[in-house]
Write a structure and sequence with these properties.
The structure is a single chain. This protein has about 300 residues and is mostly helical. It has one domain. It is about 60% helix and about 0% strand. The protein has 14 helices and two strands, in the order H-H-H-H-H-H-E-E-H-H-H-H-H-H-H-H. It has a two-stranded antiparallel ribbon with strand order 1-2. A hairpin with a 5-residue loop joins strand 1 and strand 2. Helix 7 runs antiparallel to helix 8 and helix 7 crosses helix 9. The longest helix is centred in the middle third of the chain and has 22 residues. The protein is globular, with a radius of gyration of 19 Å.
Length: about 300
């Protein structure tokens, strides 16, 4: 029995190392979060945001968000023309993860720092799309497309692959909570209900095919990942596709595969067993002095406290 437990623990540790290594290409944004004792950040322990973003289903949500964002020609043109994702895919992944982590679980100074990083990165992002429409990353309607795609995708992934389904009231609370992040980046409009958000994205009049879309989807379908994680990523990509609204799937040129949801649920259960919930959620609970739920967290805390 001891030998079997050792084998299982070693396997879990390998899964943790291969998964968390993908996000280790940018500084951890909550390294000193314990310096802000009692600060709940934008949300706090009673929020819906912390358990939704803190679950491993958020991995699928992140892939889904990038897919949906690519359906807007001006937004994806900004990515194609200015992003470093082709030459530094894991760096971009890590920076995006750091932004979500900081705005979701950080104390207010950490939230503000993350928003300023995004604002500085967006400042030079301007140009024209293939249909000769101008784009500027900070434009409220483009910021809204990016932000709303993230919010809807994290919610859709949790509802489909999370440990339980949220009630309609909880889903609406999550969407309303996320508008606090959107407002920090001047995003507009920001639907405040789950149904309103889903319809806004699915029926958006400005989406369409573009050169940047085709390139982004091809990249997301087969990114240059370490061999150890390619199979798992493929499962999550197909699961993400299966949750995208039909109209947007047609624009993106992706199709829903039989069994993608079932296999995706199995993959997420495996990851939840190996990784536990987000250590950033854990340290945020420690920072505010909240009760730590048993059985949720497996990874060690990464934050330190200055003395």
């Amino acid at each position: 029995m001891t030998e079997l437990k050792t084998i299982i623990d070693e396997y879990r540790d390998r899964v943790v190392a291969s998964t968390t290594g993908l996000f280790a290409h940018a500084p951890y944004p909550l390294e000193h979060t314990l310096d802000y004792r009692g600060d709940p950040g934008l949300f706090g322990p009673g929020s819906v945001t912390w358990p939704v973003i803190g679950d491993v289903a958020a991995f699928i949500g992140g892939i889904r968000a990038l897919l949906i964002q690519a359906a807007h020609p001006e937004v994806v043109a900004g990515v194609a023309d200015h992003s470093t994702y082709r030459i530094d895919p894991l760096g971009r992944l890590s920076r995006t993860s750091a932004y979500v982590t900081a705005t979701s679980f950080g104390a207010r100074p950490e939230v503000e720092a993350a928003v300023q990083i995004v604002r500085r990165a967006h400042a030079p992002v301007r140009g024209r799309s293939h249909r000769n429409r101008p784009y500027t990353a900070g434009t409220p309607k483009f910021a809204a497309w990016v932000h709303n795609a993230l919010t809807d995708s994290f919610l859709a992934a949790f509802q489909e692959f999370g440990p339980r389904r949220l009630s309609r009231e909880e889903a609406d609370r999550f969407v309303a909570e996320q508008t606090r992040v959107g407002r920090l980046l001047d995003a507009d409009p920001l639907p405040e209900t789950a149904l309103g958000l889903r319809r806004w994205l699915a029926d958006h009049p400005e989406v369409g095919e573009s050169p940047g879309l085709a390139e982004t989807v091809a990249f997301l379908r087969s990114p240059p990942l370490p061999p150890a994680v390619r199979v798992g990523y493929g499962v999550m990509f197909r699961a993400a596709v299966a949750t995208v609204p039909a109209r947007l799937r047609d624009i993106l040129g992706v199709r829903r595969r039989p069994g993608a949801l079932v296999i995706g649920r199995l993959m997420i259960r495996l990851l939840r067993w190996a990784l536990g919930s987000s250590p950033s959620w854990h340290v945020a609970l420690v920072r505010v002095g909240a009760e730590i739920p048993g059985g949720l967290f497996r990874q060690p805390l990464r934050a330190t406290e200055e003395t």
